[in-house]
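quick one before i forget lol
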Amino acid sequence: MARSIKKGPYVEAPLRKRIEEMNRRFEKKVLKTWSRRSTIIPDMVGHTIAVHNGKKFIPVYISENMVGHKLGEFAPTRTFRGHSRADSAAAAAASAPGGPAPGGAAPTAGVVQTTQ
């Protein structure tokens, strides 16, 4: 469920304070944060925020298109390393033109069965 509009976007207080301080001083440095749940606000545009993914900090450059999204969306927590060779070989065989038909049944196109 979405957050109430009257409450406004959730941004952790220390993170908001640090962003406002950097904007006041016209600084551009990388901020480290563990707050993946904080919403990106227009004040953050142009800054680089290092978001923790559970193992390391992922630097995220904030652009205008990211406003309204959460910081955690841009720092994935899982690394996809691909499927195993067995899975890819089975998928290649199933999609080959001469391979087995879907459902495991042999194709019956053009075969006429007669009964006596």
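fyi The two ends are 66 Å apart (CA to CA).
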